[in-house]
Amino acid sequence: MSEHVRTTRETIENMLRVVLEGTRDDLADCYAEDVVITNPFAPEEFRESHGNAAVRARMKSFAQYLHYTEIKNVTIHETTDPQVAVVEFTVVGDLAPSGKQFELPSINVIRVVDGLIAESRDHSDGVRTAKLLEDIQAQG
């Protein structure tokens, strides 16, 4: 009997759950080995990540600063391509060590292949992202 491969929706729901309940390694495990993540509105140094190892390293580097406490306003829009969905959500958390709270609304276009995220185009609130990165740098 073949093992169930997560659908695109199931993969996205799992990823959002792991953001809150898992480790950064668990989160990186949601992504394919050859994943490409683009953040078109982020500063140049954060605009693209290629490969799971790069995504894992980036997630771990931010883990010391960002503690996620809630994912809210989630809407998953399925498309005519069963591998692609658009997900709207807001990440809520606090910045370590200051405890300063943040909310970051995002819209991501995600492609899932064989139950893993193969591509994600992440569109976060540019002003809030810049402020969050500024706060992280001030603490680092």
Automatic annotation (TrEMBL):
One protein family per Pfam: SnoaL_2
Coiled-coil residue spans: none
Highest taxon above the source species: Bacteria
SnoaL-like domain ranges (all copies): 13-119
Protein's recorded name: Nuclear transport factor 2 family protein
Species per Swiss-Prot/TrEMBL record: Catenulispora pinistramenti
